[in-house]
Amino acid sequence: MSLYKKLLNKLINKKISISTAESCTGGLLAYSFIKNQDSSKIFRAGYITYSNELKIKELNVKKDSLKKFGAVSSQVADEMLKGLYKKNKTNICISTTGIAGPGGATKNKPVGLVYIGIRTNKKIIILKKNFKGTRIQIQKQCVNFIFRYLDRLI
Predict the structure, then answer these.
(1) How far apart are CA 14 and CA 60, in angstroms?
(2) Which residue from 118, 104, 35, 31 is spatially nearest to 74, judged by alpha carbons?
(3) Which range of residues forms the domain containing residue 71?
(4) Nearest to 33 by CA among 64, 11, 51, 60
(5) CATH code, domain carrying 65
(6) What is the pLDDT of residues 77-103, one digit of tens each?
(7) DSSP calls for 104-133
(8) Taking Cα atoms as reference points, which of 7, 73, 85 lies closest to residue 47?
(9) How many domains are there within the chain?
(10) Residues 37-56: pLDDT tens digits?
């Protein structure tokens, strides 16, 4: 059984709802849940807020945070989570913001840098990860990391 299906079954059995707010993973995280049968029992919503404008409009990310810290930051991952929870009230909320490449990197923010936010039971976890590879490899590694992390967390 795949890790995706295994985690989905755990979430269903424990009646744990989930929603996502994605930037660098572009919907791959949501798709990794909903590609499986019965995902509608727990998956509530997925937002792809790729632009800063939509991060602000859909998830109430603060303009000041984007200006001060940039979209790829722990602060923005946190605000994405809070906005997502406010909209959906799911048991688990997940946000991703990062640089999948091949462009967009800076000296302090290399290609592969991703901030992952996870909110569960009023606890917020912000993880900073550096993945390697092509754009799609970075996105897939990020999603796989999230599924492994949630599998241990639940």
Answers:
(1) 30
(2) 118
(3) 3-153
(4) 11
(5) 3.90.950.20
(6) 999 999 999 999 999 999 999 999 999
(7) ---SSS-TTEEEEEEEETTEEEEEEEE--S
(8) 85
(9) 1
(10) 999 999 999 999 999 999 99
